Amino acid sequence: MKFSWVRNVTLMPGLRALTYLAYKVAKRVTSTYAGAFDPANADRGIFYTANRLLMNEFGLAETIRKKASIDAEGNAVPWYTYPAIEFLKQLDLSRKSVFEFGSGNSTLWWAAHARTVRSVEHDPAWYEGMVPRIPGNVKLLLETDGEKYAGTLDAEYDVIVIDAEWRDKCAAQALKHISDAGMIIVDDAQRVQNFSEYRRALGALQSDPRFMEIDFPGFTPITTYTKITSIFISRQADLKRSSAVYPEFCIGNLRDEHE
Length: 259
Hints:
By secondary structure, the chain is α/β, with parallel strands linked by helices. It has helices spanning about 15-30, 40-55, 60-65, 80-90, 105-115, 125-130, 145-150, 165-175, 195-205, and strands spanning about 95-100, 115-120, 140, 155-160, 180-185, 210-220, 225-235.
């Protein structure tokens, strides 16, 4: 099947492959509903729906253009998958303490949602760029020594994020310092298929009976491919919601349906 009309759509550099992939995904998922479109324009309608959802509502076009992990309104969001972000957004994290291996826009997002954040960075240049951006409830550390990096986590935290170097050592340290009702987040978990460091890290977490693993595959800010964010939740966790009625609407939901 040819998509000659695609060539007439003005796309930003680097987005053609993504929009084509979004088209293929949307077409497969919505194939049973194709009749809702004019048959002559069904392909075009599915493409535009998927393109609008990813590019506009999730803000993917802007995040790729600015090369920054942001939402459609320009607010900082973690560089996790969109399904993982939507899950975390529905939780009341206001009383949680957070430790991050790796800093960035995720640090700013956690600062806006959690009580305290402690983040360690291994890249001096990135650290210097982050220093003027962090709010008062964030403590940012710099540690370039791989033997000492994981050891900067030396107290108990409710949420521990592993999204940096030396993930196997970070995972081992996280298991020692996560609170009884806490959760551990590992981004780019799909790399377990190709990297021994990730196999060691995820293997340690997966073998710990205290946790349930929930994988969130999907698109992410900035990139034109999918990945997986895995969240290991304590079996004792009491995850309070941010709303009295849940689950809340998420991006892309039909909000005008009524009884």
